[in-house]
Amino acid sequence: MTLRAIRILKEVALIACEDTRRTSRLLQAHGITTATTSYFEHNEKWKGERILELVRGGKSAALVSDAGTPGISDPGYRLVREARAEGLAVIPVPGPSAVVAALSVSGLPSDRFLFVGFLPSRPVARGKALAELAAARETLVFYESPLRVVATLTEMLSAFGDREIFLCREATKMHEEYVRGATSAVLASLAARSEVKGEIVLVVSGAGDAPPATAEDVATTYAALVSAGRTRREAVKETARRFSLPARDVYAQVLREQKGASTAEEVAITSGERRR
Predict the structure, then answer these.
(1) CATH fit for domain 3-85, picks 3.30.70.1230, 3.40.1010.10, 2.40.160.40, 3.30.565.10
(2) CA-CA to 122 of 20 to 30 Å: which in 92, 229, 250, 270?
(3) Model pLDDT for residues 75-121, shown as the tens digit of each residue
(4) Nearest to 126 by CA among 102, 154, 98
(5) Is 134 a residue whose pLDDT tops 50?
């Protein structure tokens, strides 16, 4: 909470909250007695009209969310859009932003990044969204639910390969946690827990500026790993990690290579039989 935010919340006629129960604790801590009303995803259409009616009458209202910045993957952008469409003033009161906070301490490139927000909750739609992002060179920033984070990291490992990622959980709160490592390592850490709690931001390294791996690069690396004693599964996963490729794509290429080799052998045997 900034001094400016405290002053404004005391001065406005109404505070629209994502959850009045959570916000009330914050207001009490700062001696703020302004009236509050709920404003969240399922009532924002009709409740937004009441808030705009108050502002049209010459009063001011403040919009707050449970965590982060209102309007950034939180209720609020529709209210802002409608207010601006009517020529009403909308002024930001900057405070903590989970996107910027996580990115700033991730150690990953921050000169260009793509904020994705929440991925679709359904597995098929989520997998499709990740596949579309696999070639993005920018650092990727996601919000994720603690209930879905293990599933999402599993799908990221398949779609992106074993990239470097940074997990930010419960930023600015009592149980805040920051973890950086390969996707597989962070996934293993979370999967081993009985429960994951709290707001989560995932910062994922982009596809990078290196030229894409050729089929020959993939085949050579896979063959070298198998020759070194890796199992086929291990060799596929490690090849995918090294080239930031989905493991399923590497596996498909390995199958094509093996099928091609088998076909060539059959042709050679047949030709030999004909010569004899």
Answers:
(1) 3.40.1010.10
(2) 250
(3) 888 899 999 999 999 999 988 889 999 999 999 999 999 999 999 98
(4) 154
(5) yes
